[in-house]
Amino acid sequence: MKIFCVGRNYVAHAQELGNDIPEEPIIFMKPKSALLQAHTPFYYPEFTNELHYECELVLRISKNGKYIQDRFASKYYDAISVGIDFTARDIQNDLKEKGLPWEKAKAWDNSAIVGKWVPIPSIKNKKDIKFHLHKNKELVQKGSSSLMLNNFDQIVSYISNYFSINIGDLIFTGTPAGVGECVVGDELEGYLEDERLFEMEVK
Ligand code: ZN
User: Fold this and answer.
1) Gap from CA of 7 to ligand 1 centroid (Å)
2) Of 93, 77, 111, the residue nearest 182 (C-alpha)
3) Residue 185 to residue 203: CA distance in whole angstroms
4) DSSP-based three-state secondary structure for 176
5) pTM to 2 decimals?
6) Residue 179 Cα, ligand 1 centroid: separation in angstroms?
7) pLDDT-derived band of residue 62, with 50, 70 and 90 as boundaries?
8) d(CA 9, ligand 1 centre) in Å
9) Measured in angstroms, how far is the CA atom of residue 71 from the centroid of ligand 1?
């Protein structure tokens, strides 16, 4: 199982971190060991002093494929959820400055959180899926698939030009504006429309 992530897929988020708007999707990956398993506590990693949440829509791949065209891409995922792409922002900034790969900032154990799955056919309008994140019961991030620079089908197609995609792979589709810091004791809750799909605590 592979976890793909899209960077800077929302204009307002690219801007808040002072990044350019990319001309084509930015793709990075997390290993399987990055996925926080159910009923497992999430601990603040000891190697960072600036842990950021990035709330994102997550797709679940349901069919194996390679070189998938945009117009067929929707046949390759069957469920969606809301998740968090946890980022050690201090480490990422340091690596970016030196032009080094991001894994130490993004791909560590338990850095990927995924909520309950919602079947795609039950989604009324895939072009405008609203989602939001609460931190300690307050709204900190909200977005909609309508704001993505590359939509789901374009992302799946793009990734499949470089990597075979396989049943069970996950795609984090990028975070909207509003990323921010977490500290020990924070409670995070992710919502798709009005349904809460995960809740977790930073321990
Ligand atoms: Zn992200």
Assistant:
1) 6
2) 111
3) 6
4) coil
5) 0.96
6) 9
7) very high
8) 9
9) 25
